[in-house]
Amino acid sequence: MVFTTRLSIKPSLLLCGLVLLLLSLPAWAEKISSTRAQAQVTRSGQLAISTRFDIQLPDQLKQALQQGVPLYFDLSYQLTAPTLAAYRNRFSNLVGKDNQIRYRLSYHPLTGRYRVSMGTFSTEYHSLESALRAIGAAANWRVLSSGSLSDAQAVRADVRLNLSISQLPKPFQINALTSKNWQLDSGWTALNVSAE
Predict the structure, then answer these.
(1) Which of 10, 11, 35, 47 is the most buried (most CB within 10 A)?
(2) Are 70 and 104 spatial neighbours (Cβ–Cβ below 8 Å)?
(3) For 103-160, how does the pLDDT look when each residue is reduced to its tens digit (9 = 90+)?
(4) Is the dihedral of CA 188, 192, 193, 196 positive or negative?
(5) Which residues pair with 69 in a beta bridge?
(6) φ and ψ of 87, to 5 deg
(7) Rounded to 5 degrees, what angle do the CA atoms 89, 41, 76 make?
(8) φ, ψ for residue 140, nearest 5 deg
(9) How do the domains of the chain map onto residue ranges?
(10) What's the CA gap between 159 and 75, in Å, rounded?
(11) Listed residue (100, 92, 95, 38) closest to 73, CA to CA
């Protein structure tokens, strides 16, 4: 009896270790990481966000990109404190989508260049690495309306960059749901907030 009890304890410890290992796998598989996440509370009471991300595309996404499938990335922010301003911000984001910047990455086989578009503005790059450095790079992105914030010490906000699966063609959306290689997300990263 003592021998079987010891065996039943060891597999349970092994099972707990395996569960912990599986829970930590998404952190290893992360393909987007934040290299800069700063913000300043301006004199007018707005938040000026500056970000930069390191993006590593899996081979499947590189192949899809070179076959003419554009990739869309969304840079979003969320305000968590002060509480009243955060609630106002969430309510206004339900009405409009002013809490994000959408980047479009495409490849043009005739020129052999990559294009990053943001709204009507676009820039061409000779290499995929330089194009990926432009995605998620924001400098002095003014968010919130004037007078929303006053004390930089009380402000808490996060940023996130992710591949927008909803913008992919339908067959690729199905592939994205079944393959972790297509689910690129930096997760919410806390901004380092200071006063201007």
Answers:
(1) 47
(2) yes
(3) 999 999 999 999 999 989 999 999 999 999 999 999 999 988 787 777 777 888 999 9
(4) negative
(5) none
(6) -65, -40
(7) 45
(8) 60, 40
(9) 32-195
(10) 7
(11) 100
